[in-house]
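Teaching note: in complex prediction, the entire set of molecules is handled at once rather than each chain in isolation. The prompt given to students was simply: 'Predict the structure of this complex.' The entities are:
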Amino acid sequence: MDAGITEIGVVTGRGKRAIEDHFDISYELEHEIAGSDKEELLSSTREIMDRCTFSYTRQVEMKGLGHAILVGETLIGREPFAVVLADDYCVTEGDGVLAQMVKLYEKYQCSIVAIEEVPIEETYRYGVIEGDLEADGVYRIRNMVEKPAPENAPSNLAIIGRYILSPDIFDVIRSTPPGKNGEMQITDALQIQAQQSRVIGYRFAGRRFDCGSVDGYIEATNYTYQLQSS
Ligand code: G1P
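The expected output is the structure of the full assembly:
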């Protein structure tokens, strides 16, 4: 919403119906808390529901991030779109990370990936880029590799879970063979665009928590708790 995006598509799967119910009215719950001091907690969810539309589609088989994005094609059509991997939780002081990236998209009109420096021994957990610095925090990407061992990593600049993609990426994903772990990798598809100088890496202003790890999840929880109680 902060980035001006109000059409939200969620790629979901078996056993995750609670996500769909989250952005919907819960008559029973609302009845229970009406008139109590918890009633105000509803207003933020209601505001999101009023301003956005939510559409869902299912990824039936887990064939990788590139495949999940391709499954979303039916919700997106032919326009640039953002991808949010919700387990990467990003906090910023000013504009949110996607709002920062939308501004960059307006300038560069090509795919953009958020990046951050990671310790070199952790490159095996990320897509890693190599590029030329074009402006403060902005790299024109030449090469990108999915989850390289530290000795093969082209840098320690890792892709984190925020992307803006140009819609031709769907055709590129379709024609890219499976990569790391036999999965359809978005990094491999982006590498095709990068060879045509059509991918920007952006070191966003802010902090990221890896909520896909226990440590990151706890850190994010503590950080948010401290923000609310200060
Ligand atoms: C995915 C991407 C990887 C990226 C990471 C960011 O990996 O494949 O390139 O660096 O997200 O969180 P995953 O974490 O799903 O294994």
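Point out the following to students. Residues 65, 85, 88, 126-127, 146, 158-161, 185, 187, 212 surround 1-O-phosphono-alpha-D-glucopyranose (CB under 6 Å). The mean pLDDT is 95.
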